[in-house]
Amino acid sequence: MLAAAAAAAGGSPPPPPNRVPGLVPAAGGWRGSTLGKASLVHDGPTRYAEVYGHELHLWRSFKSPTSTAITPTEAAFVRGGGILWYNMQPTNWSAALTPAFGATIAAYAAAVKSLAPAQVIVNAGHEPDGHCDPTTTKPYFGTPAEYRAMWFHFKAVFASAGVDNAVWAMDFSRGVHKQEKFDEFAAALWPGDGAVDWLFFNAFGDHPLSDTRGNFTAIVDAIYSRFESASAPGHTFTSIPWGVGAFQPKPPPTMAEPDREAFILQAAAALNSSRFPRLRGLVYYDSDAKGMPEDYQ
Q: Which end of the chain, C or N, has fewer beta carbons within 10 A?
């Protein structure tokens, strides 16, 4: 509609979202979703617009070594101007550097390159802060140094394959809202200035609203302020755009319905008031919608 209005007024239509330089919106932020199979909108972006009444800008799609191809629905979404987030998640960072994993990275690179000239968000592993700590219950993938080495290896393979439409994103877990976790892992995992194009972090709710872990505003405020305060040469977090890579109030019995609804309303209030102006994209984790009434899903 914006393009049509500009054309009618004699001006040039704005570029589609996936052609905007660096994928940084001129104003506001991108509306994103995961379009998971358990959601009401898993059929794709068209269904998303029907359910929510708004256009989808950013689709976060999770890929694997056995699922590297661009699907017809993803290709159509990109042709229509949508931004695809091609999410890669190696589960052994040192093994990802070996020739045995080379064919997988090459397949990832070919898939992203096939969408050019549209830009595609890519990441070499999401929530690495949750997978470099052997003391947690999450699967252990390697050390921060191994993660950084893998990051640069992915970038080198993409570059050698002639991929020039990849926009590289770091995606941290909710865990960095804790000061000790942030201090231990955020800087250690960071590949360095100039190596990352977007900074994302996640904000899942899985406790009552009275607990920080069930409070959208508290989670985002803690992570947001930590990255701002820690920004410095070599770790200049504030030099690139930020986003919430995934957020969702978890289904019952993890969160009660009143707390889930409050969580969603907190997110809406934060966006409507521009409380977090660095956030230029927001991805709703729509992969598990059971128990959530459709009227506020």
A: N
